Amino acid sequence: MNYIQALILAIIEGLTEFLPVSSTGHMVIASSLMGIGKDEFVKLFEVAIQLGAILAVVVLYWKKFIDFSKWQFYLKLFIAVIPALFFGFLLNDFIDNTLGDPIFIAVVLLLGGIVLLFIDKFFKNQSINNEQEMSNLTAFKIGCFQVLAVALPGLSRSAATIIGGMQQKLTRHAAAEFSFFLAVPTMCAATGYKLLKGYHLLDAENIKLLLFGNLVAFIVAIIAIKSFIGFLSKHGFRVFGWYRIIIGVVILVLYFAEIPLTVG
After folding, report:
1. How far is CA 168 from CA 65, 126, 137, 157, 181, in A?
2. Residues 74, 75, 78: CA angle, nearest 5 degrees
3. Cα separation of 168 and 177, whole Å?
């Protein structure tokens, strides 16, 4: 992997991690077209640069994360992340296998896209405007929706948790924000686990690439998060549904054109 390739993947991570479009699906296409999809360090890189995206959330919502007097906020995040941590560990082998299956990812992208086309019509009478109005049980239920994204690569963690939040009566804005908050402990755990398993790949040059990738992902994620909240509040999910369908079709076309697609 060179710095241009690292730049491209980091931009993709920053743009797609918090949007309901599946960063995994985009990584499938990008790493494969660049011919680096089978490289073990690339697989580590794609997960580790999530730290930059996580930092973007903490910086944008620093009043939430640094106000230790509001312990209920941390409790809700802890409760919500438990299902994903439990099933992520339990389904680790299944997840590894499906991550390498482009057909599986493409189908999940397509089906998720169809759901997003109609999601705004499903949920109309939303009454919870922020996480302070949520109960601990609501937080847990949203965390259970996140398990779907853990078990189904290509679904999008963001899409699953936002839909879960709206199903629990959160407004689009509130559901998106809680999805961002929940990403912090979830992605920290996933990234830490991946780094622990792949520490032997971290020579001096690879560490520089990781630092560079995290910086780029951080900057791009800040722009993406701020833009997404405004767009979602005004326009809803329909455009993201069509976009997911297009990406799913692209993956299928590349696969049947016998262009190797590999992600890890």
Report:
1. 23, 8, 10, 17, 16
2. 85
3. 14
Q: How many residues are there in the chain?
A: 264
Residue type, 208: K
How deeply is 96 buried, as exposed, middle or buried, from its count of CB atoms within 10 A (0-12, 13-18, 19+)? exposed
Can you read off the two tokens belonging to residue 156?
């999008």
The 10 Å Cβ neighbour count of residue 58 is: 14
Contact between 108 and 155 under an 8 Å Cβ cutoff? The reply is: yes
Tokens standing for 229? 């909240």
**E strand segments, 131-245:** none
Containing structural domain, residue 20 = 3-256
pLDDT on residue 40:
81
Domain count, the chain: 1
The count of C-alpha atoms lying within 13 angstroms of the C-alpha of 64, restricted to the half-sphere facing its C-beta, is 20
Bigger pLDDT: 211 vs 192: 211
Kindly state whether residue 24 falls inside one of the protein's structural domains.
yes
Tell me, yes or no, whether 261 lies in a domain. no
The amino acid sitting at 161 is T
Is the confidence at residue 7, as pLDDT, over 50?
yes
